[in-house]
Fold DNA-processing protein DprA.
Amino acid sequence: MPDLPFDATDPRLAAAAWSRIAEPPDAAAGALVENLGAVEALGWLTSVAGGRASAGAQDWERAVAGWAPRLENLDIRRELDTLHRLGGHLLLPGDPGWPAALDDLGVERPHALWVRGGAVTGTRAVAVVGARAATTYGQTMAAELGTGLAEAGVTVVSGGAYGIDAAAHRGALTVDGVTTAVLAGGVDRLYPVGNTRLLNAVAASGAVVSEVPPGSVPSRNRFLARNRLIAALGAATVVVEAAWRSGALSTAARAADLSRPVGAVPGPVTSMASAGCHRLMREQGAVCVTDVAEVLELAGAAGEHLTTPDRPAPPGLLDGLDPVARRVLDALPARGSAPVANVARAAGLPPAEVRAALGNLELEGRARRTGSAWARPR
């Protein structure tokens, strides 16, 4: 195995090289780099691949067998030159501007991000995904969500594909909002080609990013792999339209794995294009969302309440409450009202405790009585 033609002791070059060597998501490569650092990990790999050291355990031998072929003719400076010609930049974990949300992926975190544009996300982001073969209804809903989220100062994250992704990006762009597209291939190969103009506009607004270097071809495996990045970047993931076996459902599954809330936009029960959304709500606990306000409420459940960046965050819905009151208020419907029996069932508490908690919440202005039912304050 020949020595590498670039300075493998340069941490940035080493990290960039790992994004070429390891096919994402590669937990073994992630663990190796996390424990040794990109430079030491690359040095170990070249030593083992060159026969100067032993890989040790059988699992590591198998991993090295997968990485070693990509060391041949590897000169990561070529990819970096391509990126710089495009006006892009490389982001590594820990760099200013690195999206800390990606760190939740653990050993499946990208080794680097290849970026065209500016910031990958702002302080708040929501992923909006769905079918490529979208209906007019789905595209309208995605565009409205993209517009409303952008107006609220939220970065709209999607995959740049036809259909729902494109509609969400366009919705954000119509109000000069910030949107980010996560690609499955290199940022030098804007894909799909029919969305080239849109993706250039996305790069001018926010960013077009990839975890694989320029020259990388989008493949089915890479589409599935990049879905974890979309899910991680968003404080919540919203599926606007998805068939029974849609790739967008994998994004929702990854979001749920990361304890991110998942929302689904309902469609006509006769529409196969919405069958996946209905499945998410019925089988996997996705929240039904129908407008921007509900998406913002959903995303707020993941952490800070979403507000414009120049205002302090207001108190959260459940802040300052004892455990029983929190469960009761959380059990009240976001819209409409419910009788005590329904609230008790949703909260999993005795009706007597629910009545007492609702009385105290009413005194604090955090619940209101509407006839024989109860509701959240207007």
